[in-house]
Structures are given as C-alpha cells and as structure tokens.
Amino acid sequence: MTDTVHTQNQAEEEERDNTVNIVIDGVAIKANEGELLIEAAERNGIFIPRFCYHPHMEPVGMCRMCLVEVSGPRGFALQPACYLKVQENMEVMASSDKAKRAQEGVLELLLINHPLDCPVCDKGGECPLQDQTMSYGPGESRFIEEKRHFDKPIELGPLTYLDRERCIQCARCTRFAAEVAGEPQIDFAGRGDMTMVATSPTRPFDSYFSGNTVQICPVGALTAKAYRFKSRPWDLEQAETTCTLCSVGCREVAQSSAGELVRYLGVDNLTLNQSWLCDKGRYSFEAVKNGRVLTPLARHEGVLEEVRWADALADITAGIRAGLAKGGGDQIAVLGGAKFTNEDNYMWARLAKGVFGSELVDAQLGDGFNAELALALPRAGIEETVNARTVVLIAGDLKEELPVLYLRLYQNLAKGKTKLIEISPTHTSLSDLAKIKLSPRPGELFSITEDIFDVTKNSVGSLKDESVISSIRQFLDVREETSADDGEGIVFVVGNANLAEAPIYLEESLKLIAAKLPKAKFLPALRRGNIFGALDMGLGPNLLPGRINKDRGDFFRRTWGTLPASPGIGTPEILAKCAAGEVSVLVLLGADPLSDFVDQALVQKAFENTPFIISLASHMDPSATSADVVLPVPYMGETAGTVTNLEGRVSVLGQKVTPPALARQPWLIAADIARLLEEDFGLYTLEEVSQEIADTVSLYRGVSLASLKRFGGDGVFVPVKAAKVKIASSTKSIFDPIAVPGIASVEEQGAPIKTGSAKPIALQDGNTKDSSAEALAKGDARLISLADVTSATRHAGGLDVIAEPKSDKYSLRLILQRDLYDAGSTLVNCPTLASLGGVQEILLAPSAASGFGLQNGSPVNVTGRGQMIEAQVKIDKSLSPGLAVLKVNKSKANDIFSADVSDGIASGRAELLVDASALVTDIRLETKHDKKKELG
Amino acid sequence: MKQNNDYMEKMLARKTPSTGGGFSAEGMKRAEALMALYPVKRSALIPMCHLAQGEHGWLTEECIEEIAALVGVSPAEVSGTASFYDMLHLEPVGQYVISVCTNIACMLAGAYELLEAVEERLGIASGQTDKDMRFTLEEAECLGACDTAPCLQVNSRFFGPMNSESFDKLITDLASGALAGVVPPHGVLSRVERVFSLTTKGATDAAQMDTTDAGQK
C-alpha cells in the first residue's frame, strides 16, 4: 500500500510531530516543517498568485508573481512565497496594500512583453495569466510603445509549437525538461526582452514527454500541434479516465468539444502520474477518428463485407458450436484482452473458460513472462518503487515501455533518494544513473542471477567480474544464511528485456530471487494497457478471476458450471497449435498478433491454418484485416468500466464520447454469444457485470464500478486491506490549479482546497464483515503464491549459457526490443504522431561496425530463418561485440507506413527473424556491398 | 610550453573561419586539458566556447555537441548559454568581424555617421555578412576604448578614432594583408590560453605566453 492509505491515527501523529505555527493575513495556520509558504497558504485556502511555481518541481522564484510581505528582523519585506520555507512564528501579509502593489507591478511588467492576443490564443479562457490579470492585475497599462515581434509559431519539435512573444519566462517547461524528464532539450536563449525558449540548432524537442510542457505552460506560448485551434476551453466537456495505452494507467481527463475528443490532460495525483503523461498517451485521442472498424464485417468468398450484428453473431455461434463439436474447448483459442476493461475481460474469461471450457487463453502476446509468476510475486506499488532503498531493474528500457514509470523513477534517482542496480542487456535511459550496471548477453541472465543470489554455488563459472557480483551482493545484502527479513526495502522492476530470448531465464531468475529475498517486492513490467486487469480476470493460462490458480477454482467450477480440463498454455504454444491446424476458432480480443507477436513466421502460419478467426477490434489492424469476422468495439475515451494497472490499482474509465453507432462493448458481445450458446449469464448492464466481479472475485471484493465512482478517487489497490483501514475519499491534489489547466481548474479555483484533511471513508459500504484481504487468507480462493506457479517444462535444465554463434564473423546474437513509437495502430492512426515511427535500425558495437566497414546510417541486410530485412546501422558504444539490437514493429527506411505495413509484412520487421520456440536468436549481417559475394 | 605556442600559431595562421566541423584532434586535447582545471564541469562552458570559436571563428553545431558532451550538459544548454553573449557567434561569420561602437562616447563623436559609412563601404547592414564571407558587421556596446572614439573593433583588435577615410584605408589594409600580424583570425583569444598555462605550469609560463602571444607583438 502506498501513502494514499492512512489510518487516522497515523495522520494525526504526523501532524503533531513536525508543524510550525505561522500567521497569514491574521489567520493562525499550522504548516508542515520545511514546507514552502505558498503551499502552506494554499492548503489553508489562501491562494497566492503564481506562474513559475509548480508543486512537482523545484522552486525557482523566477516570475515574482507570488511576492508577499513577510516579517523579518527589519520589519515586513516583500519575499517570493514560492521560494520561502515556513518558519516558526512567521507572519505573512498576502493581501496587504504593499503585496498587492507588488503583484500589480509584476503583472504590468509581464504584460509589457505579452501580445494580449487572447482572442486567437489557444490558452484564452483557461489561461493563468489571463485569470490572474483579472484577479491581481492593475487593470490598465502605462505601456504605449510598440511590443516585440517574433516569427510565429516556430516548431520546437514534432509535436509542439512555440509562440515566443507570449512567453513570460517562467521556466516551467525548461525545468520540466531538465528536472522531471531528465532531457534538457530546451533552454533559454538570448537575453533581455529577446529571451526565448529554444532548442539546440540540431536537435528538435522530440522528448517523449514534450506534451507536459504544453500542459504546464501558464500562458499560450507552448501549444500542441494536435490541439492547436481545435477548440475553445469553454466548449470543452470532460470526464476523468485512465490511459490504457500502457500498464502504468495514468489518470487523465478526456476532453471533448462538439462530441469529438480533442485533448487529454494529466490529472494531478500524488502517487501515480503526478499530472504527467507521455506524448503517445496524450495525443492518442486522434486515433478515435481514424482507421476505425465501423460495422460488423464477415468474410464472404474471400472478401470482408459489412453484415448485420445478428448475422455476425450467428456466424460466430455456428463456428464455435462446430469447433466445440469437433474437439471441445481445446478447439477454441482466445488471445488478448489488454485493450479491454476488467468487465470485458471477466465476461470473456467466463465465456472462454466457463462455457467453451478452453484453456487456450492468454492476454499476453508472448512479450512478457509467465503470467502466474507475474501475479504471484509480492507486488510493489509505484510509490513504493520510486521511494525504495534500492531498485533493481531487470527489464528493458522503461522510457520506451512504461514512460511515466521512468519519469517517476528518474526524479528520485537523480535526486539520490533511491539507488539503482541495472541488469539489462542494453544501455537504457536509466543506465547513467545506475550505481551498478550489468549487461547480461542473451541467455546469461539466469547464470548471473545464480552468481549473485546462489551463495552456495561455486562461482567458478562466473560470467562477470567477481567484484561486480560481490558489490551487488553487498548492495542487496545477500548472505549465505537467508533470514525472513532479507530484501526489505528492495524493489525489483522486472520484465522481458529481449523479445528474441526465451522468458524462461527471467522466470527462473525471479523464482530464485524471491526465494532468497523474502521481503523483496516486485513490480512486473508487463507493458500492454490493461494486461493486469485481463490476468486478474482470468484471461491467462491456468488462471481464474482474482489471481487464483485453476487448482483452487472450486468456487468458479460451481458457479460457472465447468472449467477446462487441459493445462493452460501461453500464446506462443497456442499459436503453434493454430499453425499445426489443431484449433478451429481463434478469437482475438483487441489483439493484433500479426503486428505484435515476435515470431512472424509462426503467426502467419497460424492465421493460414486456423479456419475461423474472430477479431474484436477498434481499428482495422493487420489481424482484423485477415480475420473472418470482425466486430467493432469502442476505443479509449468511448468506453466505461474499470481497469487495473501494474501496481494492482483499480480505477474507473470515464466515457467521454460516443463510440461508432454499431460498436458494442466486448462484455456485451460475450454475453450475446453466451446467450446464443444457451448459457445466458443473466448480466445485462455494465453495472451488473461489475457487481458480479465485486461479489464473486474475492480479490476484487467490494470493488465495483459503483463503489469506485463514489469513493475511488484515483483508484484503489486490490485486495482492499483490513476494514479498519480507511481510504481517503480522493488522493487527487489540486495543489496548484494551474498544474491541471482546463475546466477542472476553473471550477475548483477559489474553493478552499483541503487535500490533507479529506475525511477518510471506508470503500466498502460496510456490508462485508471480513475485509477482502482477511477473507482471501482463509478462503479456498487463496491468491496465487509462488508455490502454485505451474513450473515450465520447456527447456528444463537447459539454462546454461548457449555458445555464441560461431558460423562466421557476420553472425550476431540478437537483442530485440521495443520503441515507444512503432508502426502499431496507435501511431498509424494518429496523424500528428505518425511521422515519429522511425525506421528499423540495427545497433552494433563500434568494433563490430568498423570490422564490417560500416558507419552510422549504412544500409545493411539482416538475415535469419531464411528471411531478410533491411536496416540502417547505428553505432552504440555501450554494446559489446557479437550482439545486435533490433526493434519490433518498425518499417524499413523510406517506407514508413506505406501499404506493406498493413498487410503485416514490411521488410523492416525484425519479427521475421525470430523463432518463438528458440532460447536465443542468432542473425546474420550482410553489408550491401558484399551482398552478392555473401549470397553467392 | 612548446605545444601551446604551436597550437596558438596554428590558430593564428588560420586565414578564414571554417564552415563547420568539430574540434581538431589538437583542439580536443586542449579542451580536455581545459576541462581538468574546473572542479565543476559546467564551469568550463564559456572557456570551451571560446576555444571552439578560436578553432572555427564561430560555434559550429558539431562543436556545440562536443562541448555539451565534455561539459555534461545538453546541446540546448550550450547554445542557449552562448546566445546570451554577443561575442560568441552561433552563425558563420566573415574573415573579419567589424564591431562599431555606438555607445554614448562614440555616438557623440560621430559613431552613427561612421556606422553609416561602414555600411555603405561594405554594402551590408549591421548584423550581416557579405557574400564572399570577408566581413561581418555588427553594432557594439561600449568597447572600452572611449579615448579613441569613435572606435571599432576588428576581430579582437581596436582601431580609432575612425572616420570614413581611415576606415577605407583599414579595409584596404585588411584586404591587402598588411594587417596580417596585427589582426588575428576571428575568435582567437589569448585569454583562454593564458589561464590555461597559469594553472598548469605556473606564472613564469604565463609571462612567457604574454610575450610570445602573436596578438601582442
């Protein structure tokens, strides 16, 4: 649990311990020691105007708007409230004549260089400068000279425009880039009235987090390309929701104008995304309009044609009946669910496992690791992770996979609050901050983990420097005898860092670590949107709703009537079965394996050999294009329900716009199919499904749509802990109304903001005597534990390091990773993001590149499994020779998003080279000039 | 400090500012040595900019990237900082950068008339560079040579009092190479070098540097 949950006593104790007494405008106030004056005033309902101050950044005292009179040894003097820490007996006059005159003066000066073009400015109507000029300004200006002029707007980066004359030099954007994102791509240039925010001449502002600078700009200087001139703030309607593009699940508001989604803004909350979003999430609203599946489609004589829902469902029912008749549940495979809500996933799990009796169910697409293990590991929250004593990253680059988690972690690492040990095959965006960095080559991870954690093992076979191993041991306090407290304060962020390597190395390593450090916690970095919701709802091999193992499924056997008999298998094995023609019906729950599965040869064969493929898709992605029946479902912003993020935080999706007329919620489709199969679930509304989850899934006991809407705030963690622990009504802090611009701030501004004193409310309505956690401890629906995890039989005993490829000097071992911007359906359907997809690059060590006579940008062919792709060389100093890094779902050069992406076979796609059943993948390089020689 | 002199001579022998490129191998060596003098890496930012300008006459994009890497800041921070200073040029300049002072002492002595004459003579306005990259003209604040008002500066050398006739002669001399030993190539500042020798070898070397500094001859 994080600090969102307090007992009342704790909160009171904290208050007693470190408060100071101050007086603001004659009102006695208790402030926290070390707190900034502006924050103390705000918590007590006194708003001091400001521009540069931001609650999640270091104070800078740049704009002087917050000048107030503060008592000192020489009487009262003007001081910036955003830069001054409270002290015992401090006396402050925030609205004295002198303070007001100072604030008026600052505003008059700020407005001298401001164009006052509010009527044509995006910010007009939600502009802190406009608002505060009204409230704190002098009312008129004495400036009659000509104002400064700049060319406008200039393109600061691919997603951001800058109108320099509007800038008031508050340094919020530059501080964000440097402090929060760790990418100081923008800085002030020039001086005096010509001071402007600028990039270096060669590098555009292409940070993954550039949109946040637009959100926190207190004037209209920075505007988003995707939103510029799209709407006026007073026309916006908004709904609070959760981003489902990755499993961090940032809280945001979806804003629409005239029924069209036009903007996402991050919501300020203390423990999750702190108002930040990544650009992919922020600008993904554009995908709502483009490339959608609008009507049910069915294949007739090889062509997808529009059909009526009834016909589509009849086709599906007939197909499923035929499959069931042929060989029972094992004939029907269900893949995906990470794009759907918990309600959708629960219904599909019930349909797949309880009606079809199928165990060929997996929400992951072979890019994570064993779902049972991921659920069984003791889970850490994000807040716990970023504040841990030591974080051990055994995963890929978090900035590419879970951007906002990177953002949270970066700040604490840079401040030295947390220490990082990184065990990742490549140089990641956090590597420079790591105390110890270890780069296991593909296939080495388990041996290295054994070296570190298996103290009894003779470390003669140690692969890495003995001193590094022993310093990691020291850091993590790994000793020969294990005590129950080992691992306290250590959080492992774990994920599959190499998609071309079997996850077994990671899985076995994690089991070893969990056994050796019983108190260590884990944050599984499974990437896809609501993947944890899907797994929690049972859409994973051997899993049932509520993180329980199939062996403990008596309750669901009783209520659902049946459970599958066969052991569960993951997506790679399911697709192998499909490819072998052993599956009659393949259902894709928003999944697009033709784009997202790493072994392209296998998935293509699976598609060829499966007679009936059903795709529930929001967009016409390659897999939907190849399916036999396509059913339109809503996309982000159009759907209501709940989702669960990687911490186990359940939050509510807010529906802002109406889905296409013929789209149906996936849960409703499941209910329809069940009804047509004469297994009516008796659930007819979203609320009923949600209530069924809250009633029958013990992990989610009491956590229904209705209770979350009433008490959930920014989400609650499951299982809800003992009943006496109350959950604050909202963890949202509007510390700073202009930290969250938009209509929310307009509404809430002026109202006293009391985040700290929010009355805790019990989440459950008191109808359950046992808390969920207690009930789980005794009931038969016990949470999955490490002992329950089905042990992998594949490659048993084969975890020794595999010899390097030796066939010739052109052979390399492949590390396959993911970029945030790839040719996936989000980017393809978002015009502003589309150009960012980039081409396939192959990262090589300097010595390897020079050995082949290659330079940055040289074109090469890469071969493997009889396939060849094109890539562009990029030299990576941190990579060791013999290794090559490719990215999934990329196009070849000069070919971005051309037609051949949509048929799934773009020749830049590294997935063509990978064999999902192999432990590691080796590739061969062919430089263009000696291609003939090599081939001949 | 043999190496110092070699390097200085090489810089002083440079005829025209380059159009681009990063530090030379030798320049990089000096940059690294310069870095070692600063306990806080960031502090070396301005001296490094001078060093780069000494090599190319202006701050090339490649140099900005290299300085950023050496000093441990982002390229945007280097160019942002450099843009604060009029004497650091972020765009290519001509062989001779002519800065005409228009501050009060010079103004009273006819600086604007001089500036007008210079503009006419060179065929460019203040802030521009002529087509064959010979002259860059800029208006400067007080150059500190008020005793010779109206004064101007060519690269780092002062001339004054000037009028349109003496300016014509100056241009002819510059073009003919008569001032080759007096006017160093743009960007070569001996100050960076002097600091360098002071702390590495002691004051004696610094004194030596002063006497051998070609610009002072």
Structure commentary:
Chain A contains 32 helices and 38 strands. Chain A has 936 residues and is α/β, with parallel strands linked by helices. A seven-stranded mixed sheet of chain A has the order 15-14-27-26-25-16-17, sandwiched between helices. A six-stranded mixed barrel of chain A has the order 33-37-34-36-35-38. In chain A, helix 8 packs across helix 23 (666-676) and helix 14 (445-453) crosses helix 15. By secondary structure, chain B is of the alpha+beta class. In chain B, strand 3 and strand 4 form a beta hairpin. The two termini of chain B are 18 Å apart. The interface between A and B is medium-sized, with 16 and 16 residues.
Features:
heterodimer, A: 936 residues, alpha/beta, 7-stranded mixed beta sheet, 6-stranded mixed barrel, 32 helices, 28% helix, disordered C terminus, B: 217 residues, alpha+beta, Arc Repressor Mutant, subunit A, Glutaredoxin, 4-stranded mixed beta sheet, 10 helices, 4 strands, 50% helix, 8% strand, globular
Strand order of the largest sheet of chain B: 2-1-3-4
From the spread of the alpha carbons, the general shape of chain A counts as: globular
- Largest interface, and how many residues on either side? A-B, 16 and 16 residues
- Main beta-sheet annotation of chain B: 4 strands, mixed
Number of domains of chain B: 2
Rounded to an integer, what's the Rg of chain B over CA atoms? 18 Å
Strand order of the largest sheet of chain A: 15-14-27-26-25-16-17
Based on secondary structure, the structural category of chain B is alpha+beta
Please, how many helices of chain A? 32
Strand portion of chain B? 5-15%
The succession of helices and strands of chain B, N to C, reads HHHHHEHHEEEHHH
Mean pLDDT value of chain A: 86
- Approximate helicity band of chain A: 25-40%
* CA-CA gap between termini of chain A: 62 Å
Assembly annotation: heterodimer
Helix proportion of chain B: 40-55%
CATH-assigned fold name of the largest domain in chain B? Glutaredoxin
- Number of distinct helices of chain B: 10
What is the CATH superfamily of the largest domain in chain B? Glutaredoxin
